[in-house]
Amino acid sequence: MSTEHLVIAIDGPSGSGKSSVSKAAARTLGFGFLDTGAMYRAVAWWCLQRGTDLDDLAAVARAARELPLEMGTDPSAPAVWVAGREIDADIRTTRVSEVVSKVATNTQVRPVLQQRQRELIRELAERDGGVVAEGRDITTVVAPDADVRILLTASVEARLRRRSKELHGTAASAAIDATRDQIVRRDRDDSTVSDFMEAAAGVTLVDTSDLDFEGSVQAVLDVVRARRQQLAPSQG
Ligand code: DC
Q1: Residue among 222, 189, 34 at smallest CA distance from 42
Q2: Ligand 1 within 6 A of 194 CB?
Q3: Neighbours of 232 (CB within 10 A)
Q4: What predicted TM-score, i.e. pTM, was given to this entire model?
Q5: At a CB cut-off of 8 Å and minimum separation 6, what does 149 contact?
Q6: pLDDT one-digit tens code per residue, 198-230
């Protein structure tokens, strides 16, 4: 652990606000940002592009190893490139969202991406003085020794409401129903390989059900500040 290179790990389920809150926290702190979910999405997109059968575990793991992936880690303009092509919009399509759990639950893929994530976290922490890495298994598997470990959560109703507004511009009941697959089914599938519904020992739970965006960012920054004080009492 180091106060010079602060590693902040944030996990949480879909719709917890994890991605936007992590980005904003990284911006405020002047740190790098790593969206690990985007890496699973990039593998899914690449396999769809190349016609790789997502049920062929070894073929998808090979694709993950060979993927010419570059992660943009500036929290003000995070981007994902594969073979020089920017694929930010491509990896957020409904098609990719529907199938990405197949990649994320592939136990031959996970160690490949987890290793890349560890390397990126190390590089960013050194380059920017700190990094905020977000995902499902960062606090437990990728960086269990991170200086700050947070599980960002919210009630299923709050998460459905938020994601529904994001995807459909409304939280009317039809839109909520259409969003259920992206929240409830996906989290159920993803929970079979990582535990991101309950905080592991040493992980601070931040429940954003009753917080707005600014309040959620502030709650995360408060945990970071408290932890920094513990690590270096004289520096505050
Ligand atoms: O956060 P997201 O929706 O972009 O994540 C995409 C998929 O990757 C989702 O199925 C969860 C999974 N994921 C994971 O298994 N481990 C991570 N560290 C990050 C995401």
Answers
A1: 34
A2: yes
A3: 12
A4: 0.93
A5: 9, 139, 143, 200, 202, 203, 204
A6: 889 999 999 999 999 999 999 999 999 999 999
16 lines ligand 1 (CB under 6 A): no
Task: For the chain, give every domain's residue range.
Answer: 6-235
147-172 residue pLDDT tens: 999 999 999 999 998 888 888 888 88
Cα 181 from Cα 175, distance rounded (Å): 11
What separation in Å is there between the alpha carbon of 224 and the centre of ligand 1?
23
Tell me if 45 CB under 6 Å of ligand 1.
Answer: no
Superfamily covering domain 6-235: P-loop containing nucleotide triphosphate hydrolases (3.40.50.300)
- How would you class 220 by CB atoms within 10 Å of its CB: exposed for 0-12, middle for 13-18, buried for 19 or more? buried
8 A C-beta contact, residue 151 and residue 211: no
